Amino acid sequence: MKAPVGRLAPSPTGVLHLGNARSFLLAWLDIRARGGSILLRIEDLDGPRVRAGAEQAAIEDLQWLGLDWDVPLVRQSERLPLYRQALQQLQKAGRAYRCICSRKDVEQAASAPHLGEEGPIYPGTCKQGIAGVEHALPPNYRFHVAPSNTRFHDRFVGDVAYNVAEQLGDFVIWKRDDEPAYQLAVVVDDAAMGITDVLRGDDLLSSAARQTQVYEALGLSLPNFAHTPLIVGKDGRRLAKRHGDTSLHAFREQGVAAETVVGWLAWKSGLQDSPAPVTAAELVSVFDLQKVPQRQITWHGSFSA
Ligand code: GLU
To answer: How far apart (Å, rounded) are the C-alpha atoms in residues 231 and 137?
Structure first.
């Protein structure tokens, strides 16, 4: 069997916190445990949200955790021609169309019954074309989604069937500031970089359904997906500022050792039976995705609970 290829894909939009650390640690272990290679991709296309210094900080955090990668890093901002080519291919295939609706237009047009998982579902206003329609803003491009259920197998979640049309509608793949949206860039990159295995947080499960459609429309084969649960606070809600500062940087400043953080994550991820300090490298031989519990893991505010 060919050795797997995985990736760490931080967005340089803020600092890495405990939740990111868990996803990156599992993604790294899942590949290293099978003798595969890891690539680092900086997802720096989120224009206004990208913060100066965040790329370097993310790299330092990953290294501090004991994670490594095998080739020089790749930055999405340096790969625009590749994404543009994919957009053109989708346009030719009739799977991408220009949309001049503003966010407000979409909100106003989509009434309550059309509220999807991530807000109002795009009502399809521009689907029939915008030729001759005056518009002040440059267009976005939307992906023409298939009406049927999208099905794929997730190594962690199992078989997934998700109706993108009903839950999300035609989504943006190219933004009016002339950059690809995440849903397009991630597919183009994972395919071009030869990524065989994508392990990430399960907040991206519905993205995997969208991406599956994009892979198919581009004639590319899917990677193996695995989406693992996020870390939540004591209130059961996704880890956020209100649960205190869980940035790796803050822990480091407090003198917490990387082995303590990794030990806690390994314990909560079913890889050892106590929060004993451990290095990422020491976990390679014990890692098995099957050991990782299906439930969310809870941060109680310390590395001993
Ligand atoms: N850059 C994304 C993030 O930091 C990860 C996207 C992915 O793994 O597909 O959340």
So the answer is: 39
Give the residue, out of 25, 62, 204, with the most ligand 1 atoms within 8 A of its beta carbon, to mutate for a pocket test. 204
For the CA of 13, the nearest atom of ligand 1:
4
Which tokens sit at 139? 């267009």
Is the Cβ–Cβ distance between 212 and 204 less than 8 Å?
no
pLDDT at 110: 62
**Banded pLDDT at 39 (limits 50, 70, 90):** very high
- Is ligand 1 within 6 A of the CB of residue 223? no
Q: Which domains does the chain have, with CATH numbers?
A: 5-78+229-298 (3.40.50.620), 80-184 (3.90.800.10)
For residue range 45-67, list pLDDT tens digits in order: 987 888 989 999 999 999 999 99
Any ligand 1 atom below 6 A from CB of 11: yes
